[in-house]
Amino acid sequence: MHRIRIAIAGLAVATTVAALTAAPTHADKLESGGSTGLAAVFMVNPVQSSGDQTLRDQKDSATAVPASEYATVTLRNLDGSGYLSGDWANVRSTTGNQAHSDTNNFFYDRSQDQFEQVMGYFWINQAQEYLQSLGFGSSLSPILKRPFDVRINQNGIDNSYMWDKKDLIRLGKGGVDDAEDAEVIVHEYGHAVHHDQVPGFGRSFDAGAIGESFGDYLAVSVGLDAARDNAWPVLAAESCPMDWDATSYDPTAPHCIRNFHTGFTIQNHPENWGIHGVGQIWSQALWEIRLGYVERGLTTEAWDTTLISSQFDYAPDTTFQAAAQATYEEALARDGAEAAELVSEKFAARGITF
Questions:
Q1: Who's near 251: CB < 8 A, 6+ residues apart?
Q2: Contact of 43 with 232, CB cutoff 8 Å
Q3: Residue partners of 226: CB distance under 8 A and separation at least 6
Q4: φ, ψ (nearest 5 deg) of residue 238
Q5: Segment 236-262, tens digit of pLDDT
Q6: In angstroms, rounded to a whole number, what is the distance separating the alpha carbons of residues 172 and 210?
Q7: Quick count: other Cβ atoms within 10 Å of Cβ 12?
Q8: What is the pTM (predicted TM-score) of this model?
Q9: Where are the domains of the chain?
Q10: Residues β-bridged to residue 140
Q11: Nearest alpha-carbon partner for 185 in 218, 210, 136, 226
């Protein structure tokens, strides 16, 4: 693979900004001290929203991404301090000046460090709200129902990671800075989800691969949910995560860090694949089950709820087979025999039987 993302266990557009800043009316402007604000973000990422595979970073140039690929959104659950801090996400430290607004309006373009801070806050909050919309924290056990720290552009390298013992995500820079792509942000939050459900998750090769693939899957699912709710365009392949970030290291369009359609099995895949490569086998099963739920008149939310619920029963050093069986049993209990058979069938197609 071109690069990795890891969970550490234990350890143009001057006019764009003007247009975006002018977007809120006087009635829309909010005072700090409130729990909501307004901001500009990418609609997941500009490759997904535009379908333009020729977009490139151009050294953080504001003009590299058209104004049309930004959206004005509501920032929710802010703590009223005027900073990007709230119930579910805290931008704790960053390269560059900390974003602050006396009016809770956070409008920047990608040439400004504060834009990535806004992306970090918005998408972590979005991911937590998605989990809660599925019932986690109300009818189901809570997951990460607490503020989670986000540190932007502090690695000095083009890589990101989640650190469970410190309850934080660090998002790297270089090429397309990682916090410019919502799917990178939510992928790392996916690692935090696993560790919150099963402390120490990832102690075997299979568990590590499952962790990487679930991060990819959750990133895509949260992004598609936000796109649907906000009527954002989705003009790139849904099963191709991080397609803006990947323009910096995947030379072939469509640009993907990984994908959900390799066709490989656990018995038949490239010998040099590590957990990120092998994880694509698991994520293909997750994706095909998602599509199968829809074909059977069930919802993607039903599948996501079943999948995430099943993860409470994964061991920290689980095997593919044991995790697939736990997922099957959860599908049988929640969604019925036909759904459970679908789960079994799609895992078996990837060489995972139990």
A1: none
A2: yes
A3: 44, 126, 130, 182, 232
A4: -65, -30
A5: 999 999 999 999 999 999 999 999 999
A6: 23
A7: 13
A8: 0.91
A9: 6-349
A10: 136
A11: 218
